[in-house]
Structure formats: structure tokens, C-alpha cells
Amino acid sequence: MKNTFIAIITLLILTSCGNDKNGNLIVNGTVDGLKIGKLYLQQLQDTTLVNVDSVIVDGEAPFQMSATIDEPQLMYLYLDKKDGTIYDDRLTFFAEDTIITINTTLDKFETNAVVSGSKNQKLYNEFNEVNKQLSERYTDLFKRSMNLSQAEVRDQDSINALSSDINKHLKRKVGYALNFAMLNKDYEIAPFILLKEGYEANPVYLDSAYNMMPKNSEQSLWKTTV
After folding, report:
1. Which domains are assigned to the chain?
2. φ, ψ (nearest 5 deg) of residue 94
3. Can you count the helices (H) and strands (E) in the chain?
4. Gap between the Cα atoms of 170 and 192, Å rounded
5. Which long-range CB contacts under 8 A does 181-185 form with residues at least 24 apart?
6. Which of 7, 151, 185, 212 shows a CA-CA span of 20 to 30 A to 34?
């Protein structure tokens, strides 16, 4: 009887882990199809992913976690599926001091995720929608160039023409990142986009774009690496 009582108390403690939350960032949501598992809220500290909170999900119940952050930043939601795979089990989102809701599914944890509540995340979604198309086009051109280069009979004129197209498209892709960052320079997402997608731009343009940003964006976590 005593052992049963201890087991029940232990179970209650485990399943309630993460329900009493403190912090300026609250992350809640659902994982459709997940019967039981553990979710981790992760933050990049230096070069290491650190678990800042965790919660056990039981019976597809909504989850909630929290953390204290000094400024908007990219964070991670990791699902320990214990299925032997290492893919599609971690998603990224732009965190800030608000309530952020993440609804996703077990089978496509990352790709089906819908994140709401963050102004920076909304802008990041808008940017990615166009940038994904540009990236796919760039990848297609690069693959075609590789195939031409490896052909038994090399058509140098075609290779040169395709190389020119690749360079033009890359400039377009980088230009889109620079323009988007400048149009949204009041948000912390701007220097992040410069870092992630604009690194191939002319350093003079990159530095100029960065210096034109307001102090709240300029002093974000990304300033040390832009």
C-alpha cells in the first residue's frame, strides 16, 4: 500500500512537471498523435543546446513550458520520440517575452508546426515563404550545373551560361534577404536574417545595412556574428 502511494505521488510530480510556470516566455501547444512522450524547450548557449524546461505529455494533453529570456532569439522545441530516428524531432521558432503557441503533429513534428504569438516569428514565416522558393531554384540550377560538368561530352557554352544564371540568382536571393531585413529593421529578426541569409553579400553593403538599424535591433544577440 505504501509503495503504491509513493508511485502515485511520483507519477503526479512527473506529469505535472512544467505546469507551474515562471518566466517571461511561455510556450504552449499540442502535438497531435502523441500519446506519451517528453518535450524539451532548448536554448543555444555559446555553441551548445541547453534544456531550459521540459514536460511530459500524456494522452495528447496540451503542453506548457517557460523560460526567462533577455531578448528575442531563436529557440528550439525538441521531442524525445524514442523511436530510434534522429530526424524531424526538433523545430525552431523565434522566441520573445510573450505567450507563444506551437501546434504540430507527431509524424511531421517539424514540417507541420504552426507557430503563433511572436511578431518576429510571423515575419520569419513571411521571409521563409519566399526564400524557400529562391533556395529551391538555386539548388535546381546548381544540380544542373553539376550534371553538365560531369557529362562525358562537356558543353562549355552551356556550362558558362548556367554559371552566369547561378550567380544572378544568388545575387537575387541575397538581395531579397538584405531588402527584407531593412524593411523590418525595427525587429530583432532583421540582424538574424542578415547573418543567416545575407552573409554572401558584399561586406560593405552588409555593414551599411547593419549600421542603419535602430539600437534595439543592432544590440540583439546576432550583433556579435554579423
Report:
1. 2-114 (2.60.40.1120), 121-224 (no CATH)
2. -95, 110
3. 6, 8
4. 19
5. 181/209, 182/209, 182/212, 184/123, 185/212, 185/213, 185/214, 185/217
6. 7
Global pTM reads 0.72
The answer for residues whose C-beta is within 8 angstroms of residue 195's C-beta and 6 or more apart is 222, 225, 226
Which residues of 81-173 form beta strands (DSSP E)?
90-95, 99-105, 114-116
Q: For strand 73-80 and strand 63-67, is the pairing parallel, antiparallel, or unpaired? A: unpaired
> What DSSP line would sit under 102-119, residue for residue?
EEEESTTTTTT-EEES-H
CA distance 52 to 67: 7
Q: How far apart are CA 75 and CA 92, in angstroms?
A: 6
Task: Give me the sheet containing 73-80, strands edge to edge.
Answer: 48-58, 36-45, 73-80, 90-95
Type and span of the H or E element at 66: strand 63-67
For residue 126, the tally of other CB atoms under 10 A from its CB is 13
**Per-residue pLDDT tens over the stretch 91-142:** 999 999 999 999 999 889 998 999 999 999 999 999 999 999 999 998 999 8
pLDDT digits (tens, 9 = 90+) for 185-205: 889 888 888 888 876 766 766
